[in-house]
Amino acid sequence: MTEPVGTYTRQDEAIDLRALCVSLWNGRRLLLLVTLLITACAILYAVLATPYYEVRSLLRPAAIKDLDELNGTDVYELSPEDALKRVGAALASYENRYEFVRSSEALSNALAKPGRTFAQAFEYFNDRAFTMLQPDPKKQDALTSFVGLSLTYPRGVDGVALVNGLVEFAIARERARIEEDFRTVVNNRLSVLDRRIQAARAAYDAVKEAEIARLLEGDTIKRALLKDELEALRQMLRTRRDDRLAELEEAIAIARALGIHKPTNPTSLGETPRTVQGSVIRTEVNNQDIPLHFMGTEALSAERNALRKRTSDDFTEPRIAEIHKELRLLEQNRTVQAFQARENDDLFLKELGELREEAGRLRALKVDFTRLNLVRIDQLASEPLQPIKPRRALIVAVGIVLGLLLGALVVLLRDLLRGRLQPR
Question: What pTM, to 2 d.p., does this model score?
Answer without folding.
Answer: 0.64
